[in-house]
Amino acid sequence: MKKAIFRRHGAPTEVIELVDEPDPQPGPKEVRVRTRFMTINPADLLSIEGRYGAEPMDLPATPGVGAYGIVDAVGPEVTRLAVGDAVLPVGGGFWADTLILHERMAPKAPVGADPQQAALMRANPGTAWLLLTDMVALSEGDWIVQNAANSNVGRMVIRFARERGIRTVNVVRRDDVVGALKDDGADAVIVSDGGDELAQSVREAAGAPPKLALDAIGGASTGALAAAVADRGTVVTYGLLSGEDHRVAARDMVFRDVRLRGFWLFDWYRTATPEKMRDLHTFLEDKLAAGVLHTEIDAAYPLDRIHDALSHAARGGRNGKIMLTGDKDA
């Protein structure tokens, strides 16, 4: 088997290496999965760089939190999976062409789903849905604002909000993505670097201050969103694309009582009840089947070309995801 590892933090193209190991065998209640597609997400790159800030990571480590694969061997006592089943692994360390998973960590993929789209089903769409439903009580006609709106999470937020009748102001830094966001259902798109003028632009676009802001960038961008929301509004930060700590002015937090919250999908999974997880997965499967979760794919690279894939993922101006394919299926 082949897998990507990093032994130290640094630039992904410099520290990621591909290693060969003997094919593992599944133990009791375990299955062996040959991965077909693996996702590359900003969180993966930040973790490699040592900038994600979640938890200390034991090195060497293998990145990757989204994948689609096929069961090709089962261990003793496995009851719910068989050779040939398509699965969506849960957990991490998925940049490998072969995985050993406890059968409960390998839920079946939706029947008939496109493998690439299925690999992308859980992380970004799940985050988008929970940002809209678990943070603030929103009603039809309410406004929200988000930055990095052309990200995969951002575009899912737009689509889910449109279905619920929630209106969105979407902040981007490139003119060429405005049309795609409008097609997704964006009510307003602002091209801005998140400067001091953003709050006024957001309020003019919405006609009133939004009650919720979603921040994927951090640094000064968090403060720009805090200035844009209503008094006692909420800013939820779920990313740190800038690599900077979140900064919010005292006038907004102290005198307007703007609340700053964090969201991390991994932590949600650690604390959610089985019923909540089942409800989320059922919802995502339904949306995948309906085509709502369709994500543009810019390119897919065999695992052997992981450095090319990482270089592509780091480029600005992309309009789609970069994925890895398992060498055994490339």
TrEMBL record:
SMART domains registered for this protein in UniProt: PKS_ER
Pfam family, one: ADH_N
Source taxon at top rank: Bacteria
Residue ranges occupied by any Enoyl reductase (ER) domain in the UniProt entry: 11-324
Protein keywords: Fatty acid biosynthesis, Fatty acid metabolism, Lipid biosynthesis, Lipid metabolism, NADP, Oxidoreductase, Transit peptide
Biological-process GO terms, alphabetical: fatty acid biosynthetic process
Keyword tRNA-binding found: no
InterPro entries reported for this sequence: ADH-like_C, ADH-like_N, ER, GroES-like_sf, Mito_Enoyl-ACP_Reductase, NAD(P)-bd_dom_sf
Record bears the keyword Amino-acid biosynthesis: no
Top enzyme class: oxidoreductase
Gene3D superfamilies the record matches: Medium-chain alcohol dehydrogenases, catalytic domain, NAD(P)-binding Rossmann-like Domain
Catalytic activity: a 2,3-saturated acyl-[ACP] + NADP(+) = a (2E)-enoyl-[ACP] + NADPH + H(+)
Assigned EC number: 1.3.1.104
Molecular function terms, GO-annotated: enoyl-[acyl-carrier-protein] reductase (NADPH) activity
Sequence similarity: Belongs to the zinc-containing alcohol dehydrogenase family. Quinone oxidoreductase subfamily.
The protein, known as: enoyl-[acyl-carrier-protein] reductase
